[in-house]
Amino acid sequence: MLDYDKEADAYDVRRGGEARAAAAADAVLHLVPQRAGRLLDLACGTGIVTRRLAAARPALRVTGADRTHAMARRAAARMPGAIVLCDGRRLPFADATFDAVTTVWLLHLFDDGEDVRRVIADCVRVLRPGGVYVTTVDKAAAHDVGSDIDAALAARPRPAARDAADTVTSHAAGYGLIPAGRARFTGVGQGRSPRSTAADLRRGWFSRLPPGEPRTEEFARRLAGLPDQDRPRPDPVFTLLAFRKPAP
What we know:
By secondary structure, this protein is an alpha/beta fold. It is built from ten helices and seven strands.
């Protein structure tokens, strides 16, 4: 997993900034009922999406939560008094506190599938009957946009997708949730260039190969041979799934 304390300062700039945040917030709110009174944005990061959720619906009381100190500090600067530092596997909230819980770009970060299950379980616990849980799924697959970069990296050994839609849906069903909708949004500004992809590959992204491993350098050389080294390829399109907690 990335060191998000180190990533916090440049996180928004490197990941599409306000344009991407606007697209994400709009898609999330499409799946959150208008009647919702309280929303928990778990893994809120810098709060760039969280703030937009709150601004778009003034009647919605939005709480952000993140486990990384640097991210939470940046979020708190955007939303004073509305950010909690906590682990998503052990939420510090009472049962049935929220009408909606969101995990945008969280589940894919876990190496252990059991952690994904635990996060979903605790999101369900703090969700009120009739409320909705909204989450991104298949994040890694969204970055495969059919570009020459994808072709160059096709043979790399990939980590297991802990946020696969079928896996998340199965976990949700195991806790009594019912599918309640789907939305998609463009990751504006996240199209990858060959040069930036090679740099990220050497940081340990996109594959199970460690930095410095000879095969990592072979894939980096393939990327270096592509044209237009600094031209971003198409932006990824992310998928959100919503699940409803049945009322008694």
